[in-house]
Amino acid sequence: MKDLKVIFMGTPEFCLPVLDSLIKNTNVSLVVSQPDKLVGRKKILTPTPVKSLALENNIEVFQPLKIREDYKRIIELNPDIIITCAYGQIIPKEILNCPKYGCINVHASLLPYLRGGAPIQHAIIDGYTKTGITIMYMDEAMDTGDIIASREITINKDDTYGSIYTKLQEIAPSLLIEVLPSIINKTNKRIKQDNSIATYAWNIKREEEHIDFNRKGLEIDSLVRGLNPIPYANTIINNIEYKVVSGYFVPDNKVTPNKIVITKNMLGITCLDGIYYITEIKPAGKKVMAIKDFLNGIRINEFKNYEVK
Fold first, then answer.
1. pTM to 2 decimals?
2. pLDDT averaged over 10-residue windows placed end to end, the chain, 309 residues
3. What CATH number has the domain bearing residue 149?
4. Which domain-ending residue is among 197, 220, 242?
5. Cα distance between residue 184 and residue 102, in whole Å
């Protein structure tokens, strides 16, 4: 497949193994990525991870602000196939109709479940027991095209966004390279998605990161795991925000929500049906610390009477 002219479209670190595999197995003639962003307190203009990998391999990079309005360079190259993975913008029909083998997307869920920009986080937050990678044809809507192939993994009770991210990142390139020959010789499957069972994984909003301790404990645990390690779930105690990194739930039907429970080396907050015990916490402006270390640095008798919001 080294003579297959490929344009790759992607942005974050997640899709680096996919791009690397395409570089090794095909002729990647152009990489399309989101514009560089200002990063950190010093606002340093930083290239996307995909751009950095492309430049390391002497591949041309194209970074349109709005792909719907600026796609001439892609059409000019007349690619055999376009492959996308977490690019971050809706692809216009002018691009979709350009390559002779079509536009193929690598999506981090088992479609039609979890269409959208945050499928890994929502797989955990929404209580799914499995997820995976789907290779699909693209159309003008969001993640609605025909399915070519998928590969499933189990979500365990201790999995986090970070652990599922890594598992999916590992299986995505092998699945893509496995099905590419069938796409080229047109022997691949084309399975229509059942829109009636579709679910959505919209990007996480800031307010959705906040823990509501009026909810059930397992829902809180899912939220904490689904936002670990980025951006972490949070709670407000005595009007100060704390990032909740990890914890566990203990059922108890006799508690009232939003109360702090402190015992030896343990910090819990009551919820609708029990106590959620925090095992790692990140105070504002500080590093992640074990709850034992956090408790050693506070006035426990005062802290346990603080208000949780």
1. 0.95
2. 95 97 98 93 92 98 97 97 96 96 98 97 98 97 97 98 98 98 95 98 97 98 98 97 98 96 93 98 95 94 93
3. 3.40.50.170
4. 197
5. 10
